[in-house]
Amino acid sequence: MRADTGLTALLRMVAMLAAGCGPIIITPSDPTAEGSAGPSATPGQARAAFASPATGASAFTPLDYSFVDPSHEWALLVVSNSQGGIDLQASSSADGGASWTTGPALATMAVGTELPVRRLLFADEYHGWAYGPALFATRDGGLSWSPVAIQGQVLSLTVVSHLALALVRLCSSAVCSLSLWTEDIQSGFWTPASRQPPSSGESGEVISLSPSAVWVLSSSQAAPYSSLAVSLDAGTSWKLLPAPTRGGRCAVTLLAAADPQNLWILCGGGPATIMMEKGLYRSSDGGQSWRLTAQASARGPTATSDSLPMVGHINSLVFTTSSRGFIALGRASLIRTGDGGATWENALPKSPEDLQAQGGISNLMFVDELHGWAAAGNLTARTVDGGDSWQGLSSP
């Protein structure tokens, strides 16, 4: 597929923080340096297309990105300020990253302070949220932001129909539980959902992919099981589904859905240096039954051949169709499948050794079946053909 000329050399990013790391300030690159904009771009075109989301800042680090279409995007940044501290800032682009508009600071703090938010999600060109563990909201496309008073720590956020849904962790003494909160996007008021999904554990995520279908996956590192709940009426009612049975505990559990019938759960064991055991489970009947479709195990195969690599820590799981999927591996590469998860291969033109030097793939995003982005340290790749090819790997 021929690349969209408006995306010829998208997004000059610097290091993207992996979740859970402390704030790291990175000096931006020389704006006159040449980037890689694909085989047909000239050096001058590359310089014009690769624009910084923190124009004028002396030092900055992207935390997260959000897209509502291939042109409209936002970047959540940690930016050094003139007082020797740091600002949390959101920049926006309406031309696929060729130029950026710097927004106001969401918060200002001293270097080393725990960040109030690390994630970013926009529902449309106007309504967006910065979250995890706190919550900030904008109703004007990022021109202004306001803190939102919500009880607990926001773990995950998604949009379904006219509602925003937030999975919140509430802790009392040593006991933690999960609660689903909702907001009518037009009204801007958050309240606990009148119908709560069944859940267990202290961590989880909420995802949606249609105006009515929502899943909540909850889990605990202390127990070898997860809880999966589904609503097919935008949260009006919930059904508890049988989660896949696994032989050991998961340090990381990720959920992906291509449609209401095709679901995947990826379990990552406790990481040991660069290695991590992995198990990928698939359901083709909306979560009624599960099968182990791929794994990486130090103990050898149990229900299927080892087709996932042991090397790499799982950061993101995305399925764009019932057959095409991707896993972003920290300290390794981006891998893909074309058969629903049974077999996997490297998806990027860079060798795993090159990407390991950048910390591996820290972030993976798709706005539709064709347009996606992957970030690895100070390298960024984008696809316009559903992941068949990736272009625009560049170093600042």
The counted number of beta strands is 27
The CATH topology of the domain at 1-149 corresponds to Thrombin, subunit H
**What is the CA–CA distance across the termini?**
27 Å
CATH architecture of the domain at 1-149: Beta Barrel
- Low-pLDDT ranges: 1-52, 300-305
Helix-strand topology string: HEEEEEEEEEEEEEEEEEEEEEEEEHEEE
The rounded Rg comes to 20 Å
Biggest β-sheet description: 4 strands, antiparallel
Give the count of helical stretches: 2
- Beta-strand percentage? 35-45%
Which key terms come to mind for this protein?
Thrombin, subunit H; disordered N terminus; globular; mainly beta; 396 residues
Descriptive report:
The chain has 396 residues and is mainly beta. It has 2 helices and 27 strands. The protein has a domain at 1-149: Thrombin, subunit H (Beta Barrel). The strands form 7 sheets. A 4-stranded antiparallel sheet has the order 1-2-3-4, with no helix packed on it. The protein has a 4-stranded antiparallel sheet with strand order 5-6-7-8, with no helix packed on it. Strands 9-10-11-12 form a 4-stranded antiparallel sheet, with no helix packed on it. Strand 26 (372-376) and strand 27 form a beta hairpin. It has helices at residues 43-49, 352-356; strands at 60-67, 73-80, 86-93, 101-109, 119-122, 128-131, 135-138, 146-147, 153-160, 163-172, 175-184, 190-192, 203-208, 214-219, 226-231, 239-241, 252-257, 263-268, 278-283, 291-296, 313-319, 325-330, 334-337, 345-346, 363-366, 372-376, 379-383. It is globular, with a radius of gyration of 20 Å. Helices cover 3% and strands 39% of the residues.
